[in-house]
Amino acid sequence: MDLGIAGKWALVCGASKGLGFGCAEALVREGVNVLLVARGAAVLQASASKLIAEYAGNTGATVQFVAEDITTPQGRQAVFAARSDFDIVVTNAGGPPTGDFRDWDRDAWIRAVDANMLTPIELIKATVDGMAARGFGRIVNITSGAVKAPIDILGLSNGARSGLTGFVAGVARSPLAAHGVTINNLLPGAFDTDRLRGVMQGAAQKTSQALDVVMAARRNTIPARRFGTVEEFGAICAFLCSQQAGYINGQNVLADGGAYPGTF
């Protein structure tokens, strides 16, 4: 299927590895020009070089990168100095640390909200009016399956990402929708990433079990009996950014191998 987005410009955050890289890779394969953002310059440059070498020559896509912390005003300023207009924005920030809510002070909560709620809102605010003026826009916020099924050790993430979910539910249904702009949240379950391993390591320490035991137990709770791959996550993201997905708006798309037990 031709997704109809070749030649569009996308901003992909947290794009040096993991789910963010998977989204960037899927978009570049579709001929989308991509600006990658992440904090680690060396890894980010290597990821950009990989995309250029493997795909850009065949698709004609331009791949650029900015090594900045998108969760800071200075980082966002640097990104928009490199390019001001985007047709597609994929927001993504590393999840807050795991732990016991009794140990989190106000500063910990502010950091979580800044990264996982306020930063996506700032990126939406900076780009949606231009999208509406051009008649096309796709914003995909990578949040978490924990928004639907909270996990006790992910309290910081549960709270901050749920706040973003509520915000998107309102703004996605504003007059922007009539101008071809969609805003959706993509909720990953257990995908094979460094983040998953970090969460499982926290669970292992909490329960005094070996990491492999905790990983196997987690895998067995998933009807698919496996962890997701970044490639299939990226494909879902790319479809949500497509011309064909123009009637999908304000939704929370859960990708978790069937793990969530609810009907809604």
UniProtKB/TrEMBL annotation:
<comment type="similarity">
    <text>Belongs to the short-chain dehydrogenases/reductases (SDR) family.</text>
</comment>
<protein>
    <submittedName>
        <fullName>Short-chain dehydrogenase/reductase SDR</fullName>
    </submittedName>
</protein>
<dbReference type="InterPro" id="IPR050259">
    <property type="entry name" value="SDR"/>
</dbReference>
<dbReference type="InterPro" id="IPR002347">
    <property type="entry name" value="SDR_fam"/>
</dbReference>
<dbReference type="Pfam" id="PF13561">
    <property type="entry name" value="adh_short_C2"/>
</dbReference>
<dbReference type="InterPro" id="IPR036291">
    <property type="entry name" value="NAD(P)-bd_dom_sf"/>
</dbReference>
